[in-house]
Amino acid sequence: MNPRAVLVTGAAGGIGTAVVQAFLTDGAEVVALDLVAPDLHGGPGLSIAADLTDEQAVAEAFDAIAARYGCLETIANVAGINHRATLTQMQLADWDRMMDVNLGGMFLTAKYGIPLLSRGIAPSIVNMASISGHVASDDFPAYVTTKAAIESFTGALSQEAGERGIRVNAVAPGWVDAGFTHAAMAEGNAGQIHEAASKAHLLGRMARAEEVANAFVWLASPGASFVTGQTLFVDGGLMRVH
Amino acid sequence: MADCRTIVVTGGAGGIGATTVAMAQARDYRAVSLDLRENPDADISIVLDLTDEGAVKDAFDSIGPLVGLVCIAGTNVQGLVTDLPLAEWRRVMQVNVGHMMLALKHGGRALTEGAGVVLMSSVSAHIGTVGSVAYHSSKGAVLGLMRAASGGFAPRGVRVNAVSPGWVDTDFTNRALDATPNGEAIRLAAAAQHIAGRMAQPSEVAEAVLFLLSDRASFVTGTELVVDGGFLRKR
């Protein structure tokens, strides 16, 4: 029997690392992909350095996956970037790059990954969305736009991929104690951010990266066999706070 | 028995409910069924009318600490807005929504830190079909109750979520279809309404319930998990 192979993009980041570890704990082999070849944390799998905006590089990554495994069970699209700029001050090149990485990367992994997923046993794709797709964030309009688009993309892809037996879902976290939030805290206002997070979430805190990773693993699991085209909010009730 | 991981399932003798009880037991929960009918396989089966506040209170008083509350009990009635008797409307609201309020009211205190509550809504909360006005309304109300309750229980570390299935292959579905003039045609069309090309099995809904109850969903609260095989996306 073939090992269960799971591709994780953005695997070197804070949440990506937790997603890699969660799938390894769940017994999968992980293809960890990022701009710089990610750590596999001692688990079985494959580490690939690739730029998700480079179609040729993505195609080659899937060639490597095909050569190693011949099929793919799950694609966890975690890769994403952020850019701080109001719309009136934003450079078009920065806007285009946000679209290319956050949305185009998912398009390319689907384009090249669906043939491999079609040979999986209970295949699915899980995309990283965000509560930012639903609530405004003044300094990050490009991020907000890409994250809303990811849910529309997830819905559209769930139809096309569904015809080939592939489920497609999204995970929408609130604030996560990793990645972008860590970067913001590193700028020196960690206390304020924790204070704001405690007010923003019903549960009084931000998420741990592994809590977001658990949602990826569940949506990819056989237990979620009737869940497709959906977004699972892992936001500690943030969307309910007003 | 405070060290037991006890959960309560309302509607625990029905299609989704009995499956939830059985799958919970397989994961080392102690499952209590509250239903009009007995579930002989539950660890405790309490037969009661869930719209009777005294009976609901007595039931929860007899059970003890809970790590989970799952409200599944529901009913359906056919009728257009223009000819549905008020009593029928009220009965659907009392069974489908009112019993959840009573369960939260009298069972809420028993929920321990980290416990989960799951309320059964439906894709019916998001669409409208002619002749099921009370059912659609009640399932929308369940989402409102879920959102409201999630805030009230959060300070105690109790999470409150909803699961919304599409068509599920149960006796409840079959009874509703039998009561509809063109039920057989609807049954045949139902499979094609899902991206998955079929109705859900009760176990697929119960899996979502058990995920939301578990520690794996420790940051999931105030939200709706749709388990519809792509039904809403396909429309």
Task: Walk me through this protein's architecture.
The complex is a heterodimer of chains A (242) and B (235). With 242 residues, chain A is of the alpha/beta class. Chain A has one domain: Rossmann fold (3-Layer(aba) Sandwich), CATH 3.40.50.720. Chain A has helices at 14-25, 55-69, 92-117, 141-162, 179-200, 209-220; strands at residues 5-9, 29-34, 45-49, 74-77, 124-128, 167-173, 231-234. Chain A has a seven-stranded parallel sheet with strand order 3-2-1-4-5-6-7, sandwiched between helices. In chain A, strand 1 (5-9), helix 1 and strand 2 form a beta-alpha-beta unit. In chain A, helix 2 (55-69) packs parallel to helix 3 and helix 3 (92-117) packs parallel to helix 4 (141-162). Chain A is globular. Chain B is of the alpha/beta class and 235 residues long. Chain B has a single domain (6-234), classed as NAD(P)-binding Rossmann-like Domain (Rossmann fold). Chain B has helices at 15-26, 53-63, 86-107, 133-153, 171-178, 183-192, 202-213, 231-234, and strands at 6-10, 30-35, 44-47, 66-71, 111-120, 159-165, 224-227. In chain B, strand 4 (66-71), helix 3 (86-107) and strand 5 (111-120) form a beta-alpha-beta unit. In chain B, helix 2 (53-63) runs parallel beside helix 3 (86-107). The A-B interface holds A 155, 158-159, 162, 173-174, 202-204, 207-208, 211-212, 214-215, 217-218, 223-230, 232-237, 239-241 and B 147, 150-151, 154-155, 157, 159, 165-166, 195-196, 200-201, 204-205, 207-208, 210-211, 216-223, 225-230, 232-234.
